[in-house]
């Protein structure tokens, strides 16, 4: 099949079915591909008996090789004349390997159906152009929004120069998140808690404030069976360096990457003790108006380390700081069945106010808990 150069082909009835399957497959390595996004490719062939998948691939751990390479290798000669479904526009730049768009042309792929657009200036339309120059029919933007949600951290990093931020909070039925100074309050049930660990596994890093770390001494890892290696890196927002080497995050820093964001003026002796335990540091500065950590600058520095997605699970202060700064791209509110009462600490945002500021993507029930998954409109 050939097409006029520079032209796009229309969507076909079967395209959404196979793209949905590709998006599900892309979730396989979310949070494990470094600075590259987790992308999936399906090679689909129809020899008259209906379409069938002859090759599939997903971005490998660490980010290489790309999904297209794995799918083409599995399909072999069956790729010639077939359709490739790719959840992100194929890359067009030369690196350690040739561009994926070029590999698809060489393999004889007749048609490429892509979902999300790639904002990387080295790609951004160039992948589609390379395909069409090679005589490949291109159908773009098929289930683009759904595909983008699986790689939103990567997209935010390219568009905004910072990691994508998901803020997650558990709220009691009366809108409280805990009791000030009272330690951790159990709000959600076991089914909901398992979902929390799944969310953790899909992010590069998890962030809490020093207050949460000191009150709860949390592990901040993924404790689903068989998924311990999916634990995200841990970031503690601790400008005055109150974390001690005896705490869990410090004692396990050699097992799970742990970073503390702190002022340059923080206690050098404590810094040395934490560093000896395996903790690393990132410098942060104070916002001149609030005195709190300047979050935009911190996020830029974290992006420079290769982090593309952060799950914020801290208390009211850190949540309020991210909300006030307009840095929350995804908001997950989990409303439990328990009530805390007037002594409880009110959440900085509740479900009703979230509906006014964000777009509700989905609502789920896990056990006795109700999950609300919101996205920023921008």
UniProtKB/TrEMBL annotation:
InterPro entries: APOBEC/CMP_deaminase_Zn-bd, CMP_dCMP_dom, Cytidine_deaminase-like, DHFR-like_dom_sf, Eubact_RibD, RibDG_C, Riboflavin_Biosynth_HTPR
EC nos: 3.5.4.26, 1.1.1.193
Gene: ribD
Organism (species): Jiella endophytica
Biological classification of the source: Bacteria, Pseudomonadati, Pseudomonadota, Alphaproteobacteria, Hyphomicrobiales
Residues where Zn(2+) binds: 66, 91, 100
Job description of the protein: Converts 2,5-diamino-6-(ribosylamino)-4(3h)-pyrimidinone 5'-phosphate into 5-amino-6-(ribosylamino)-2,4(1h,3h)-pyrimidinedione 5'-phosphate.
Listed GO MF terms: 5-amino-6-(5-phosphoribosylamino)uracil reductase activity; diaminohydroxyphosphoribosylaminopyrimidine deaminase activity; zinc ion binding
Keywords, in A-Z order: Hydrolase, Metal-binding, Multifunctional enzyme, NADP, Oxidoreductase, Riboflavin biosynthesis, Zinc
Similarity remark: In the N-terminal section; belongs to the cytidine and deoxycytidylate deaminase family. In the C-terminal section; belongs to the HTP reductase family.
Gene3D superfamilies membership: Cytidine Deaminase, domain 2, Dihydrofolate Reductase, subunit A
Cofactor(s) it depends on: Zn(2+)
UniProt-listed CDD domains: Riboflavin_deaminase-reductase
Binding annotation for NADP(+): 170, 212, 216, 315-321
SUPFAM superfamilies reported in the protein's UniProt record: Cytidine deaminase-like (SSF53927), Dihydrofolate reductase-like (SSF53597)
Residue span, CMP/dCMP-type deaminase domain: 13-138
Residues of the active site: 68
Cofactor binding note from Swiss-Prot or TrEMBL: Binds 1 zinc ion.
Positions contributing to substrate binding: 200, 220, 223, 313
Biological or metabolic pathway of the protein: Cofactor biosynthesis; riboflavin biosynthesis; 5-amino-6-(D-ribitylamino)uracil from GTP: step 3/4; Cofactor biosynthesis; riboflavin biosynthesis; 5-amino-6-(D-ribitylamino)uracil from GTP: step 2/4
Pfam family, one: dCMP_cyt_deam_1
Record field: catalytic activity: 2,5-diamino-6-hydroxy-4-(5-phosphoribosylamino)-pyrimidine + H2O + H(+) = 5-amino-6-(5-phospho-D-ribosylamino)uracil + NH4(+); 5-amino-6-(5-phospho-D-ribitylamino)uracil + NADP(+) = 5-amino-6-(5-phospho-D-ribosylamino)uracil + NADPH + H(+)
The name this protein goes by in its record: Riboflavin biosynthesis protein RibD
Gene Ontology terms: biological process: riboflavin biosynthetic process
């Amino acid at each position: 099949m050939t097409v006029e150069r520079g032209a796009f082909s229309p969507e076909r009835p079967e395209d959404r079915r196979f793209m949905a399957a590709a998006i599900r497959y892309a979730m396989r390595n979310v949070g494990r591909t470094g600075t590259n996004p987790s992308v999936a490719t399906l090679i689909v062939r129809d020899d008259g008996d209906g379409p069938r998948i002859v090759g599939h691939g997903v971005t490998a751990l660490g980010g290489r090789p790309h999904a297209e390479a794995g799918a083409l290798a599995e399909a072999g000669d069956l790729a010639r004349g077939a359709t490739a479904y790719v959840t992100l526009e194929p890359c067009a730049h030369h690196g350690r390997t040739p561009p994926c768009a070029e590999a698809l042309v060489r393999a004889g792929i007749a048609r490429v159906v892509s979902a999300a657009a790639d904002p990387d200036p080295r790609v951004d339309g160039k992948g589609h152009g390379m395909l069409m120059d090679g005589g490949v029919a291109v159908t773009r933007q098929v289930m683009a929004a759904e595909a983008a949600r699986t790689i939103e951290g990567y997209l935010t990093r390219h568009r905004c120069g910072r990691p994508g931020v998901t803020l997650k909070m558990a709220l009691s039925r009366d809108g409280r998140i805990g009791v000030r100074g009272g330690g951790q309050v159990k709000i959600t049930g076991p089914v909901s808690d398992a979902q929390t660990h799944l969310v953790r596994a899909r992010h590069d890093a998890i962030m809490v404030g020093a207050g949460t770390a000191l009150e709860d001494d949390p592990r901040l890892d993924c404790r689903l069976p068989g998924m311990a290696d999916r634990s995200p890196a841990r970031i503690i927002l601790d400008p005055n360096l109150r974390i001690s080497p005896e705490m869990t995050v410090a004692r396990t820093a050699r097992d799970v990457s742990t970073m503390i964001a702190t002022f340059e003026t923080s206690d050098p002796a404590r810094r040395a003790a934490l560093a000896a335990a395996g903790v690393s540091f990132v410098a942060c500065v104070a916002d001149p108006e609030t005195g709190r950590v300047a979050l935009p600058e911190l996020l830029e520095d974290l992006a420079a380390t290769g982090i593309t997605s952060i799950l914020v699970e801290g208390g009211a202060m850190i949540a309020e700081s991210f909300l006030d700064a307009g840095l929350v791209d995804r908001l997950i509110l989990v409303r439990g069945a328990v009530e805390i009462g007037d002594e409880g600490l009110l959440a900085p945002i509740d479900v009703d106010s979230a509906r006014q500021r964000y777009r509700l993507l989905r609502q789920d029930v896990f056990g006795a808990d109700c999950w609300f998954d919101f996205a920023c409109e921008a």
